[in-house]
Amino acid sequence: MNHFLDIHKTDAGALRTMIDQAAAMKQARRDRPKGAPDDTQPLAGHMVALIFEKPSTRTRVSFDVGVRQMGGQTMVLSGSDMQLGHGETIADTARVLSRYVDLIMIRTFDEAVLTEMAEYADVPVINGLTDRTHPCQIMADVLTYEEHRGPIAGKKVVWTGDGNNVCSSFLHAAGQFGFDMTFTGPAQFDPEEEFVGLARSKGSRVVIERDAARAVEGADLVVADTWVSMHDAQSAKERRHNMLRPYQVNAELMAHAKPDALFMHCLPAHREEEATSEVMDGPNSVIFDEAENRLHAQKAIMRWCLGV
Ligand code: CP
């Protein structure tokens, strides 16, 4: 069963194939007349359940559109409207859904919900974000980096601010795709030690640097993310902002990176907080390419899951 649960749990060769296939499908779509369907419809006859226990714009729309472009159909389900985990065990929901659909994508809070869903489902399960990781986003980010600058292997990626779930998946990707990562932020927001160790064990150079300007020196890619994630208590907002403000990505900070360093943010962003509009809308920003590439990367992920 090809579940796509996390980047570090997926074979590195398979990840590379997915990125290359995503790039090829993106190009093929660009080459055909506007409005024409994809040449191949590998998901024809397939039904995909998209379950959201948290809000989403990009994940929801890109999965829905991606399935339809490949000839499949979707069912978008809200966790609050289902019996998921309250009226019924996750295991039973997984078994029931497997009788109706061919593939399940779930965005949830607790990673345990995802893993239980995968354990009991008879169809592949895709991680659409948990409190701990966001692998689909980072597959899109690798695709985005490579289409602008070539292979990401050996490059220096700098993560600024909160070592959150998206940062965790970047660390997983560092190990699998062979790039180095520097984290810069307050110690309280350090990325998970387990994931830092995992990246290092695969040969990635991972550095923790409290000084943002020093961290960004020589960076090929600078990444920012929101300072208060969906799963963080809103009551902690002011304290988090005060601690993370020195890590804002602005023009002054970007000046320490390589002149052609890219800027990424998975969105949604809080402009003038974690990053300034000057950087977000600047010539080195690829934030909307990242958003578009969710579509292409996830189409390849779904094909890999289904073997089509
Ligand atoms: N980046 C991302 O996952 O966006 P959504 O929360 O809108 O899906």
TrEMBL record:
Residues 154-304 form the Aspartate/ornithine carbamoyltransferase Asp/Orn-binding domain. GO terms for cellular component: cytoplasm. Signal peptide: none annotated. It is found in: Cytoplasm. Keywords: Cytoplasm, Transferase. It catalyses: carbamoyl phosphate + L-ornithine = L-citrulline + phosphate + H(+). It comes from the Bacteria. L-ornithine binds at N165, D225, S229, M230. Its EC number is 2.1.3.3. PROSITE patterns: CARBAMOYLTRANSFERASE (PS00097). GO terms for biological process: citrulline biosynthetic process; L-arginine biosynthetic process via ornithine. InterPro entries: Asp/Orn_carbamoyltranf_P-bd, Asp/Orn_carbamoylTrfase, Asp/Orn_carbamoylTrfase_sf, Asp_carbamoyltransf_Asp/Orn-bd, Orn/put_carbamltrans, OTCase_ArgI. One of its GO terms (molecular function) is amino acid binding. Pathway: Amino-acid biosynthesis; L-arginine biosynthesis; L-arginine from L-ornithine and carbamoyl phosphate: step 1/3. Carbamoyl phosphate binds at S56, T57, R58, T59, Q83, R107, H134, P135, C136, Q137, C266, L267, R294. Residues 3-147 form the Aspartate/ornithine carbamoyltransferase carbamoyl-P binding domain. Its main location: cytoplasm. PANTHER family: ORNITHINE CARBAMOYLTRANSFERASE, MITOCHONDRIAL, ORNITHINE TRANSCARBAMYLASE, MITOCHONDRIAL. HAMAP family: OTCase (MF_01109). Belongs to the aspartate/ornithine carbamoyltransferase superfamily. OTCase family. Reversibly catalyzes the transfer of the carbamoyl group from carbamoyl phosphate (CP) to the N(epsilon) atom of ornithine (ORN) to produce L-citrulline. This is Ornithine carbamoyltransferase. The lineage of its organism: Bacteria, Pseudomonadati, Pseudomonadota, Alphaproteobacteria, Rhodobacterales.
